[in-house]
Here is the input.
Amino acid sequence: MADGPGEVVPPPGSTSAPRRREGDDTMAKLKTRTKTETADASSALPERTTWRSRVPELGPDAVVVVVVDADQTRLVSDVVDLFPTADVHVVLPGPDVPRPDIGRVVWHSAPGNDALGPLLERIGTLDAFVFLRRVRVEAALATWGRSYLHLADGGTFVLASVDGTSASATTALDRLATIRDGEIDGISREETEAARSTRDMTATPDGIVFTKSGSHQLKVGEHRADDVLPQRLPSLGLVELDRLPSTVVTATGGAVVSHRSTAPQSVLSAEYEVPELPLRHYGAPVVLGQRLVTRVGQTLLPGSFKSPFKKEVAPEIGRNPTPNFAAVGESSPRRLEGAYYDLRCAWPGQYGHVLTDTVGKLWGWAEAKRAVPGLKAIYRLAPKTTEPGFERDLFRAFGIADDDVEWVRDDVEVETLVAATTMWEKDYPHYAHPGLRDVWATLRGALVAPGASKTTKIFVTRPADLEARNCRNAVEVEEHFARRGFTVVRPETLSLAEQATLFAGAEVVAGFGGAAMFNVLFAAAPRAVLLLAHESYLAKDEQLFGLLSGAQVHCFWSAADVPRVEGSWDPAASKSAWEFDFARNRGDLDELLATL
Here is the structure.
């Protein structure tokens, strides 16, 4: 497998496609066993004390990486002979290093760990890694930590050219063997996870051999997908059906106006950037797991993450031990023949997540349906749900026929998959693609009752029994707005069509922060959106809906019972109870309402 322009193409007949291997997802947390083997001068077979004697025999579909210095190419042939049927990738420190003529070898160049990591991502899951470069023990272990999670369960990692019996090596290995939960000073997240995932460590005079326990999945986000996926998964049959260009959105209503906060609040500006958004067709089987997991072997595709640029799996289904790797459990997916369009959301059945996660993916449906014969949408229902709810009405409103939707409740492996990068990014850098206006207009046109009377001023309240962000003086707030001509509503008591009809004619939408405020998307021409929230509420969805709809957005802040700590995320703070502070906000609020 070539590493890109300037790299040597594998010899004819060589196989460079990486092996796809499913493994045990259980992470080893027992203290690792460290063995030290010294050469016995009287032994008739001294090679048994070398790292070579500790390397297991690999099968014909195995993938091996060997990293050497410029003056070590003479050693490559001997190492390759240890793996007579494997696909071997040799990494040199630079592109100009002479390369001997050795069959079955794919040559690459990477001068250090920063270049080695992206290269390993492209190669795929490994069965063995042999590091021959002559470096200090500390540097060798740094490479081990950065590279180890690329190994399959049971894979072998060799730090050759390192005296594993030296004092420095013994000290380092003993330190690794003591790691339990959490990090210790001087050891990175990668090294910590690598140590926890080691079944066995053997030190010899010419190297250290590690045996890996457990599987890790590479998290491929949008930033790296175009570079990594075609090389890492050549059999995936990736085809790009469409790509929306990057754009800059300028909100006609101006920047969000923040009122009376006691500490600086993060609000959105009138101008923001939206990156390119691809529509991809994966022409090979893909597993769709819990939440958004979109998986091929030990690779998580971009659709696996709630945020396309923040590579984290939900904690309920797995771990994120390092920025680039997850540990997600294996499943036994049910096979679904045919092509499917991914409309799943992170929290199925929850109104706000559907209106952001799922609606944000609708943009590619028409083009995908045209390009892929027999394509159906696929949506995973919430746990314990037997029938779809408002989601069915939503899909119908967008023109997706009932027969074109596959409702699933379990993990499935689809024959092929179409995935649209969402137009909605609720996490940083926070954006909503302007193409959503067309999606919203389509939904509005299908859902709004013809000839319905208009409600121009709406105040969105929340149920009194909600645990999250309960406003103790909500009744007083409702009355304050009602006296100024607002209709107080609880949208969750209405059908989807009734909500769309109610909000369609709204000119001013005010209310407590939450998913019910997302109904602004149904308003044809809102002039103002007023958000009432406490200072520990960090969500930006309401602001995005208001900005993209063309409204002027105002945020009125009050104190939370549980204050947030700057720079951290605390669910208790975000869901804190609170009380709208009239003493702080009445002046600004009434002055604004008088103009509306």
About this structure: The first strand starts at residue 33 and ends at 36. The first helix runs from residue 76 to 81. The chain has three domains: 51-214, 218-247+270-425, 448-595.
